[in-house]
Write a structure and sequence with these properties.
The complex is a heterodimer. Chain A is α+β, with helices and mostly antiparallel strands. Chain A is built from 5 helices and 5 strands, in the order ββαβββαααα. In chain A, a hairpin with a 2-residue loop joins strand 1 and strand 2. By secondary structure, chain B is an alpha+beta fold. A 7-stranded mixed β-sheet of chain B has the order 3-5-1-12-9-10-11, with helices on both faces. In chain B, strands 7-15-14-13-8-30 form a 6-stranded mixed β-sheet. In chain B, strands 18-19-27-28-29 form a 5-stranded mixed β-sheet. Chain B is globular, with a radius of gyration of 27 Å. The chains are: A alpha+beta, B alpha+beta. Chains A and B meet through helix 2, helix 3 and helix 5 of A and helix 1 and helix 17 of B.
Chain lengths: 158, 756
């Protein structure tokens, strides 16, 4: 079947098989930030935006994205770099395998709620598993990023 | 110190947070054959027939291999220094399958679809045999897991395949029975730690291809590139010179990737077909056919006088290595040798163990490596002893714990030259508010808040075995290249080792480029495991840098036409103190590349006769729901003595991550089998690891001692930090409910049923 979608701002028209999962379609298109950590929609590693809303790309058929817009971390490099620096300043990126999914979902959170509480952060990101960090360093990084944003993003980051 | 002790950002941080393609599957070539495995549905069976001819006809299938196609000599997948203590009990494919999930056939094809189709079309007929599924009955069972004649133990670990024994040993100091007989209080209990999965986010995976020289190149998510090279050489029967193993970024290891779980299959395919291939384990395979923690049952007998002086410990461990012996003979040793020495007051101890084969998936290395199991048992027993003595468990420990300068008979006779355990315990108790909160408070709303405590230790390498190396060379612009074969699996060792190099060379950490691990280009390193990287490879880095400094100075002396002893060098400029003439590091680097016969490059290796233990204390406060048994972690205070903290951020995150893993292990992570030996917890749906809603508040502090043999005083941190949650949480639950839970995990169900 033929579908058309906008991937990271670029229009793509392509023949696909009806059973093709979005995660595989995206990796086939060079979006290697999209990681597979499980087969049961539990880990959050494959989080991408479908029409600006976070979805698990392992649980979406590519066919369903016909006529829609998909964004991956490849299309959000500036935001990823800006926010990711705060995670890195805690050493909380660790192995990095879960980072893209968590950062996608965190960006979605910040867009919905520019000033979330700790509880709101934890609940929003509950589906993004991480085995390295114990989550505390991620929380510290998120808090520091939010504080930086509240200050108008003025301080100079490397 | 300028660089050591600084919270420097990880060198690979930006690539990781922006999702760059730096992992194995991101870097695989697009024309790789897809490799998958047909796995046994039976726990113990002999293949009678296996028919692959129709499966081979599926379009796109390149090859299908069965036990008849592979070499017939046995090897181990354990990543250990040769001769490996783990018995040689594996084949690439075996006619005798020994657990549900044991590989039966390797299928390679152009894409997943054809491989999946072919897998379904292979017809295997089995003679199903009785299976050993209860590890209590394994020793001397009439059913043998490894009846074969070519099973082989390379080391005298007490292994005997005719008794289902992977290892056995007894060691002691003093007359433990006599000392126990004289004790006023004796406590004897048995503790059971079930298997648990490392659950690194990146599953096992390997890519293979042949290079221009026809050599086998293996890119793998591995902690042990040199050991993998030897394992592949053993398995394929080819020279090590024909194999290159290297790792890109690794999506977590935790010891899982200290076993060559996935490498042999694509390696065999590429070696046979000449074509590139890759295997990507599914999460289900990573749960069912991997290298989890060894299940252990540990009986502890403690004796004390009425004043609370602990006089003797007798410990027996029964360990379940599963169908194969990877890390079986060695993990068990830590259950005693890295728990008993926490108590310096002992007059005698005995430690004995059996490690048995069963028809379950092979166990392996998991952070803590047996110490975790032993410390759960011993620290739980000490908490029970405190209750028996009507003593505060913190006081009891302060009275008995090992102190700096003490000889530790159960720790291979080593001396605790750096030990701040007393400060760790006092600080952890203070942070949690022990005096006010111990043992519990009824909140009046059906909930109880309680606290628990435990201590821990680990090692900093395998003494007189582990080798770490570093090659450091000067570039012509004054920057440096450092090559290592220690494996940064997210822990940040590339950065930490660069910090040690920068400190030694007096330069910014950004001037040190790190590469590895690659068996073609990195100097030999046993790999990143046994908490050895900072201590062993870090010392090798320091030595290499010191020697490079000397070479830089002698080059400078030649350029300045003076003696090296007349030179002052600050890491950037060398000055002849007599003439006042100077050369810069850049000029020295440039000069080394023109008409020069002395390489400004040094390789140093290091191995240590001792393995200085890091120490720590953990204290937890929980809230327990009396009706449902639900346990919520409110606060966890961890205080660690890892010697000098090389990078406080990375040490803190190591600790927080391991606390979370330990919380999962204590409360719900479980590896369970049906009565036919099939694994139940085969996905992240059934095997629940903690989410960010489950870990509470984790607080980490450091109480540093100074280890005289470590680089800038450092010991280790990677493993020790997983050891306190299980005993501390079990203690808190006991303090809340009055019931002792001696088997992990302590699920809400168990608490609710037990409390009633």
């Amino acid at each position: 079947m033929q579908i058309s979608l906008v991937l990271n701002g670029k229009k793509i028209t392509e023949e696909i098989t009806p059973d093709l999962l979005l995660i595989d379609f995206l990796r086939n298109h060079g979006c290697y930030s999209v990681k597979r950590g499980c087969e049961t929609s539990n880990c959050g590693l494959c989080t991408v935006f479908l029409d600006k809303k976070p979805v698990l790309s392992c649980s979406v058929l590519t066919a369903r994205t016909d006529g829609h817009a998909i964004d991956t971390l490849e299309g959000l490099q500036d935001e990823a770099k800006e926010f990711g620096a705060f995670i890195a300043d805690q050493g909380a990126e660790q192995c990095g395998f879960c980072n893209p999914g968590m950062i996608m979902n965190a960006i979605a959170l910040f867009r919905e709620n520019a000033d979330p509480t700790d509880e709101e952060i934890k609940e929003y990101l509950a589906g993004n598993l991480c085995r390295c960090s114990g989550y505390e360093g991620q929380l510290r990084g998120i808090r520091a990023f939010l504080e930086y944003k509240r200050q108008g993003g003025a301080s100079c980051r490397q | 110190m300028q660089t050591v002790g600084q919270p420097i950002r990880k060198k690979d941080a930006e690539a990781l947070v922006t999702g760059k393609p730096v992992f194995t599957d991101d870097l695989a070539m697009k024309d790789c054959l897809i490799v998958k495995l047909l796995r046994s549905p039976h726990a113990n069976a002999m293949l009678k027939k296996i028919k692959t001819d129709t499966a081979k006809l599926v379009p796109g299938i390149e090859a299908i291999y069965t036990w008849e196609d592979v070499p017939k000599h046995r090897f181990t997948l354990a990543g250990q220094t040769y001769p490996e203590p783990s018995p040689y009990d594996r084949l690439i494919l075996d006619r005798h399958v020994r657990y549900v999930g044991d590989p039966v056939a390797i299928v390679a094809g152009e894409n997943e679809e054809c491989v999946d189709r072919a897998l379904k079309m292979i017809k295997a007929e089995y003679e199903v045999l009785p299976a050993v599924l209860d590890f209590h009955t394994a020793k001397d069972n009439e059913v043998l897991v490894h009846p074969e004649d070519n099973w082989k133990a390379l080391c005298p670990v007490g292994a005997d395949n005719q008794r289902n024994l992977c290892a056995e040993e007894e060691s002691h100091a003093g007359d433990v029975d006599a000392v126990l007989a004289g004790c006023d209080v004796i406590l004897e209990e048995t503790y059971h730690v079930r298997a648990a999965q490392q659950t690194m986010m990146e599953t096992f995976r390997t890519v293979c291809y042949k290079d221009a020289y026809g050599r086998l190149n293996v890119m793998s998510s591995s902690q042990i590139v040199y050991h993998v090279r030897r394992i592949l050489s053993n398995a394929l029967g080819i020279s090590k010179s024909k194999i290159r193993v290297f790792k890109p970024r690794i999506g977590g290891g935790f010891g899982a990737k200290q076993t060559a779980v996935s490498e042999i299959y694509p390696a065999f395919v590429t070696w046979m077909t000449g074509k590139p291939s890759k295997i990507i384990f599914t999460r289900e395979e990573t749960q069912t056919a991997s290298s989890p923690r060894h299940e252990m049952e540990i009986t502890v007998k403690l004796g004390a006088d009425s004043e609370g002086n602990i006089q003797a410990i007798n410990m027996y461990t029964l360990s379940n290595t599963g169908a194969y012996g990877e890390h079986g003979p060695t993990t068990v040793g830590l259950s005693g040798h890295k728990s008993i020495p926490l108590y310096g007051s002992l007059k005698a101890h005995r430690f004995s163990y059996d490690v048995v084969y069963t028809n379950q998936m092979s166990a392996g290395a998991y952070r803590g490596y047996g110490a975790t199991q032993g410390i759960f048992a011993l620290e739980s027993a000490v908490n029970e002893l405190a209750e028996r003595l009507h003593m505060d468990p913190v006081e009891l420990r302060m009275k008995n714990m090992v102190r700096e300068g003490q000889v530790m008979p159960a720790y291979y006779g080593e001396t605790a030259n750096s030990c701040a355990l007393d400060r760790c315990l006092m600080r952890a108790a203070e942070m949690i508010g022990w005096k006010e909160k111990y043992p519990c408070r009824d909140m009046g709303d059906g909930k109880i808040r309680s606290v628990g405590i435990a201590m821990a230790m680990q090692g900093s390498c395998i003494s007189s075995v582990d080798v770490g190396s570093a090659t450091v060379k000067l570039n012509e612009d004054g920057s440096y290249m450092m090559s290592i074969a220690a494996a940064d699996m997210g822990t940040g060792c590339d950065t930490i080792l660069a910090q040690i190099a920068a400190e030694s060379l007096e330069c910014p950490v950004g001037n040190i480029a790190v590469s590895g691990a690659d068996t073609d280009t990195s100097p030999y390193d046993s790999g990143s495991y046994a908490s050895s990287t900072t201590y062993i490879t870090g010392t090798a880095v320091r030595h290499a840098c010191e020697q490079l400094r000397e070479k830089i100075c002698s080059q400078a002396a030649r350029m300045l036409e003076c003696g090296a002893e007349e030179l002052e060098y600050d890491g950037n400029v060398a000055k002849d103190v007599k003439s006042g003439k100077t050369v810069t590091l850049e000029e020295i680097g440039v000069a080394s590349m023109c008409n020069n016969v002395q390489a400004l490059q040094v390789t140093e290796s290091y191995s240590s006769p001792v393995s200085p233990p890091p120490f720590m204390a953990g204290a937890v406060e929980i809230e327990l729901d009396k009706e449902t048994g639900q346990v919520e972690i409110l606060d966890y205070a961890a205080v660690v003595d890892c010697g000098t903290v090389v990078n406080p951020n990375l040490a803190r995150v190591q600790t927080e991550g391991a606390l979370a893993q330990g919380i999962g292990m204590a409360l719900y992570e479980n590896v369970q089998y049906t009565d036919k030996g099939k694994l139940l917890n085969n996905s992240l749906m059934q095997y629940k690891i903690p989410s960010r809603l489950d870990v509470g508040r984790l607080r980490v502090e450091f109480e540093s001692s100074y280890e005289p043999t470590g680089p800038f005083g450092a010991k280790s941190i990677g493993e020790i930090v997983i050891n306190t949650p299980a005993p501390a949480i079990a203690h808190a639950i006991a303090n809340a409910t009055g019931s002792k839970f001696r088997e992990l995990p302590i699920t809400s169900e168990k608490i609710a049923m037990g409390a009633r």
